[in-house]
User: Which sequence fits this backbone?
C-alpha cells in the first residue's frame, strides 16, 4: 500500500514539473501548479500516516489547500488580465523582459 | 502582559490593513490628482506598531522572554525577530511616506496600502514562528501579498509578465518546502524546531534531503543563484516602493525562514554551511556581472540585490562552517539591516527621479542610466541621496555598507582557513567590481550635461517623498560613522542565530 502512495506522490510531482516546464499556456501553468501541490499534499498526509499523527497532517493539508487556492486565484486573475491585454494566453506573447 | 505585546505587534498592522482597505474603498472619495487620505491610517498603523515593538524589545534586551501560544502554535519574539521587525517597520514607514504622492494618480491606492500592511504583518509573524509549518504559512501570506504588489500595474504587459514569473517560480519553491516538511514530519512526527533535532539526528539521509529541499524552496524566494531569474523582472517592474520592500526586506526574510527551518536540522549544519559558501560566491559574481550590463537603473539595482544576498550567504556560510568565525553573524545581521536601508534608499531615490521625469507626465517607461545625465542640476537632493545609496552599496567608507561587509570578512578571516581567505579576497574583488556600475551613475548625475529627459522633467519636490529619503539617508550615513547604534539589535540577533545552531 505504501509503495502505491509513494508512486502516486512521485507521479503527481513528475507530471506537475513536466507540465510546468513544457507548457506555454498560462491557464495550463496554473493547472500544473495545482497538480504539484496535490502531490506535495499527499506526501504530508502519507507522512502523518507513517507516524500515526493524522490530526496534524490533516490540519496541515487543509491549510495548504487554502494557501494554494489563493495562489491559484491570483495566477488565474493574472492569466485573464494577460488575455484581455494581448488576446492570447501564450506566455511568449508577453515575454519581453529578459535582456 | 508580555503575551499581549506579541499579539499587539501582529494585530496592529493586521487591523490597519483591513481598516485602510475598507475606509479607502467605501468611505474616501477617489480623486485622481490627490492622494487617498486613508494613507494616513496606514502611517498611524505603522507608528502604533512601534509601541508594542519597543516594549517587546526592551524586554528582550533585559533578558526576558516574550512569547505567546495560540492553540498549538507558539510564537517567540527573539533577537532575530527584533531585528527583522525593526527593519520592516522603518522601511515600511519610509515606503508608505514615499508612496503618498508617488501612488496618488493610481487607481485602487487602498489595495496597495492594504497589501503593504499585510506584507509587514507577515514578515513580523514569520520572524516569530517556531515551527516549520507556521513559517511556511507566514511565508505564503507574504508571497501572496507580494505577487499582487508586483503586478500592481495590471494594465501593463511587462508588469504582468514579472508577476507571473514570480508567482510560478515562487509557487514551485513552495512545493519543495512542503515536501521537506513532509519528510521531517514523516520521520519525527513533530514540526516544532526545538523538538526535531534530537529525533532526527540518526536519519542523516533525511536531513540532507530535507535540507536540500529547504535550500531549493526558500532559495528561490531569496534569489540564490541559479534560482534568481524572477528577481530582476519582479523588482524592476513593481512600483518603486514595492521594489524597495522586495529588495530591502522580503528576500532577506526568505533567508531568515531558511535559517529557522535549517536549525531543525542542525546536526548537519556544517554541510549546509559549505553550500552557503558556494551560493554566496555565485551570487556575488552573477549579481555583479548581471548588473554591469544593465541599461535600466531599477534593473541594475535588482541585480545588485542578488550580489548583496551573496555577501549575506557568505557570512552565514562562515558561521555554519567554521566554529572560529561566529563573529561573522554580527556582520550578517548588520548587513541585513544596512542593505534594507541602502537598497530602500536607492530604489526610492530612483523612484523619485522617475516620478519627476516621467510618471508625473503619465509616462511609465523605465528609467535608463543615460537619462540620469545631469540630474543633480535640477534635482540636487535626489541626486545626492541616490549617490549616498549607491556608494554605500559599493562599500565605500565611511558609509554603512563598508562596516557590515568588513564585519563579515573579518569574522571569516578569524577561521584562518585558506579557503575562507580565498573567498574573502573574492568578495573584496566583487565589492570593487560593483563600483564599476555604481560609480558611473554618480558620474553621470554630477559631471554630465542634463539630458533632454531631465530638462523636460517636472520641477516638483514632494515633502513626504523627500522626508522618506532623508530618513533612510540618515541611517545610511549615521550607521557608517556610529555602527554601535544598532549593535544591541545585531548582537542579540547573532546570539539567537548561534543559539539556534548550537
Assistant:
Amino acid at each position: 500500500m505504501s509503495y502505491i502512495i509513494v508512486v502516486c506522490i512521485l507521479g503527481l510531482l513528475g507530471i506537475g514539473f513536466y507540465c510546468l516546464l513544457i507548457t506555454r499556456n498560462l491557464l495550463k501553468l496554473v493547472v500544473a501548479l495545482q497538480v504539484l501541490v496535490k502531490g506535495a499534499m499527499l506526501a504530508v498526509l502519507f507522512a502523518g500516516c507513517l507516524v500515526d499523527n493524522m490530526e496534524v497532517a490533516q490540519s496541515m493539508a487543509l491549510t495548504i489547500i487554502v494557501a494554494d487556492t489563493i495562489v491559484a486565484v491570483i495566477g488565474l486573475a493574472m492569466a485573464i488580465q494577460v488575455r484581455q491585454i494581448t488576446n492570447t494566453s501564450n506566455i511568449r506573447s508577453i515575454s519581453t523582459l529578459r535582456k | 502582559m508580555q503575551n499581549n505585546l506579541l499579539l499587539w505587534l501582529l494585530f496592529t498592522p493586521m487591523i490597519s490593513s483591513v481598516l485602510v482597505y475598507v475606509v479607502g474603498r467605501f468611505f474616501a472619495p477617489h480623486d485622481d490628482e490627490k492622494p487617498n487620505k486613508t494613507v494616513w491610517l496606514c502611517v498611524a498603523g505603522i507608528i502604533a506598531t512601534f509601541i508594542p515593538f519597543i516594549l517587546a524589545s526592551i524586554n528582550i534586551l533585559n533578558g526576558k522572554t516574550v512569547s505567546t501560544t495560540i492553540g498549538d502554535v507558539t510564537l517567540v519574539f527573539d533577537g532575530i525577530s527584533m531585528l527583522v521587525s525593526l527593519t520592516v517597520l522603518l522601511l515600511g514607514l519610509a515606503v508608505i511616506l514615499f508612496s503618498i504622492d508617488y501612488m496618488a494618480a493610481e487607481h485602487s491606492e487602498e489595495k496597495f496600502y492594504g497589501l503593504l500592511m499585510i506584507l509587514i504583518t507577515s514578515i513580523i509573524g514569520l520572524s516569530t514562528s517556531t515551527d516549520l509549518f507556521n513559517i511556511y504559512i507566514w511565508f505564503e501570506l507574504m508571497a501572496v501579498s507580494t505577487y499582487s504588489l508586483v503586478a500592481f500595474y495590471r494594465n501593463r504587459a511587462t508588469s504582468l509578465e514579472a508577476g507571473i514569473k514570480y508567482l510560478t517560480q515562487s509557487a514551485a519553491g513552495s512545493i519543495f518546502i512542503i515536501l521537506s516538511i513532509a519528510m521531517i514530519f514523516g520521520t519525527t512526527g513533530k514540526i516544532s524546531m526545538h523538538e526535531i533535532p534530537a529525533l532526527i539526528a540518526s536519519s542523516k539521509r533525511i536531513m540532507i534531503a530535507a535540507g536540500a529541499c529547504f535550500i531549493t524552496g526558500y532559495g528561490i524566494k531569496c534569489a540564490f543563484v541559479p534560482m534568481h531569474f524572477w528577481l530582476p523582472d519582479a523588482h524592476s517592474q513593481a512600483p518603486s516602493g514595492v521594489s524597495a520592500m522586495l529588495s530591502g526586506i522580503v528576500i532577506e526574510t526568505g533567508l531568515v525562514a531558511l535559517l529557522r527551518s535549517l536549525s531543525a536540522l542542525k546536526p548537519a549544519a556544517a554541510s549546509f554551511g559549505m553550500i552557503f559558501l558556494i551560493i554566496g560566491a555565485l551570487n556575488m559574481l552573477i549579481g555583479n556581472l548581471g548588473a554591469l550590463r544593465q541599461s535600466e537603473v531599477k534593473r541594475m539595482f535588482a541585480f545588485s540585490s542578488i550580489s548583496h544576498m551573496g555577501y549575506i550567504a557568505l557570512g552565514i556560510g562562515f558561521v555554519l562552517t567554521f566554529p572560529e568565525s561566529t563573529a561573522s553573524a554580527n556582520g550578517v545581521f548588520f548587513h541585513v539591516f544596512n542593505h534594507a536601508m541602502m537598497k530602500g534608499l536607492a530604489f526610492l531615490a530612483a523612484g523619485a527621479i522617475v516620478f519627476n521625469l516621467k510618471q508625473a507626465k503619465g509616462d511609465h517607461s523605465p528609467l535608463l542610466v543615460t537619462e540620469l545625465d545631469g540630474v543633480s542640476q535640477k534635482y540636487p537632493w535626489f541626486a545626492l541621496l541616490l549617490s549616498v545609496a549607491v556608494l554605500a552599496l559599493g562599500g565605500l567608507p565611511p558609509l554603512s555598507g563598508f562596516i557590515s561587509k568588513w564585519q563579515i570578512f573579518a569574522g571569516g578571516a578569524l577561521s584562518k582557513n585558506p579557503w575562507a581567505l580565498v573567498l574573502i579576497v573574492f568578495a573584496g574583488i566583487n565589492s570593487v567590481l560593483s563600483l564599476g556600475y555604481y560609480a558611473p551613475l554618480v558620474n553621470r548625475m554630477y559631471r554630465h550635461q542634463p539630458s533632454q529627459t531631465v530638462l523636460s522633467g517636472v520641477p516638483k519636490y514632494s515633502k513626504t517623498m523627500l522626508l522618506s529619503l532623508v530618513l533612510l539617508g540618515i541611517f545610511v550615513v549615521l550607521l557608517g560613522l556610529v555602527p554601535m547604534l544598532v549593535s544591541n539589535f545585531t548582537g542579540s540577533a547573532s546570539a539567537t542565530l548561534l543559539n539556534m545552531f548550537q
Remarks:
- Residues 359 and 405 of chain B are 35 Å apart (CA to CA).
- The longest strand of chain B covers residues 66-70.
